[in-house]
Design brief:
Layout lengths: L2 H26 L23 H30 L4 H26 L4 H27 L26 H26 L22 H28 L6 H26 L6 H30 L10
Main location: membrane
Pfam family, one: COX15-CtaA
Subcellular location: Membrane
């Protein structure tokens, strides 16, 4: 479909992942006020003062702007090359929309103080932009958007592996439910960060030495996030088990479910490591690893959701992409 377009989509996906990571770094280091209330300038200057907070905040803005150009170029390229595929355009335009939306929300947060609940949405929109970019890049890599009848004989890009995905209606509901629920878990986690509630539950797996602590203040917020993460783990285990059965679906779905299970287990333990390192120099690293893992998990669940969606689409149609 074009190496340049794939390169742009891949750069946009990697860039949005970096934006997610840097946004978490801004929050964890308390650098959100590093540039005062100025935007796009930093404390009234184009080149900010060399303080840690201002450099972290301003570098986040700079990277977001550069990645935004990649996202825009990808959207334009998709319009020129992939107009036959509504799915590809949806991902390309979705990436652009959520990138702009999270940038606007970030700018408003600098100029006008926002509530923690609203700021948690900033991470959520960035995650949606990352996932859309990732899905577009994966689709281009696997040849999912090659017009029907133009597939190259042989080779990984001509085989249309996604088109062979078959799954039951029950499996589709589990996958779609898990994707939506995981976004809720991510939002609660972002809310924990922005309210600085990580210390509300000391110790793991118990919370302050209790099975069920008082659900008030930071303790309640952190404990709810833990319970939500455990429920997500149970849901992913069920999906992975169903996918592993002979009637569960294709090899593609089975592999994706296995990746989702691995990432879910890792993010649970990374969440525990965040608690264990709260008072150490390792805290920032463990917190960023936690963000990377949950972002990867959400991306895999979104990919599985797309596979579920493709499995119920009609096999014909002018604008169908495999």
């Amino acid at each position: 479909m074009g190496k340049r377009l794939y390169g742009l989509a891949l750069a946009a996906a990697i860039g949005m992942g970096l934006v997610l990571l840097m946004g978490a770094l801004v929050t964890k280091t308390g650098s959100g006020d590093g540039c005062g209330t100025d935007w796009p300038l930093c404390n009234g200057k184009f080149v900010p003062a060399y303080t840690i907070e201002s450099m972290i905040e301003y570098s986040h803005r700079f990277v977001t702007a550069i990645v935004g150009l990649f996202v825009l170029a990808t959207a334009v390229g998709a319009y020129m090359k992939l107009r036959h595929s509504r799915e590809a355009l949806m991902f390309a335009y979705g990436t652009l929309f959520f990138t702009v939306l999270q940038a606007i929300l970030g700018a408003l947060a600098v100029i006008f103080p926002q509530s923690d609940a609203v700021m948690a949405l900033h991470f959520g929109f960035s995650l949606l932009a990352f996932s859309s970019a990732l899905l577009l890049a994966v689709g281009l890599r696997t040849g999912a958007y090659v017009p029907k009848g133009m597939e190259a004989p042989g080779g990984p890009r001509g085989s249309r592996p996604e088109a062979d995905t078959v799954m039951s209606a029950g499996m589709r509901k589990w996958i779609w439910g898990a994707a939506v629920y995981s976004y809720i878990v991510v939002y609660v986690g972002a809310f924990v960060r922005h309210t600085e509630s990580s210390g509300g539950c000391l110790g793991w797996p118990l919370c302050n030495g209790q099975v069920v602590p008082p659900l008030t203040g930071a303790t309640g917020i952190a404990f709810i996030h833990r319970i939500a993460a455990v429920i997500l783990l149970v849901v992913i285990v069920i999906i992975a088990y169903k996918a592993s059965r002979p009637e569960g679906g294709s090899r593609l779905l089975r592999n994706a479910a296995q990746w989702a299970l691995v990432l879910t287990v890792l993010q649970v333990f990374s969440g525990a490591s965040v608690v264990w390192t709260l008072s150490s120099d390792w805290y920032l690293l463990t917190a960023l690893v936690h963000v990377v893992l949950i972002s990867g998990l959400f991306g895999v669940l979104c990919y599985m959701s797309v596979l579920a969606w493709r499995s119920v689409r009609p096999t014909g149609g002018k604008n169908r992409s495999a």
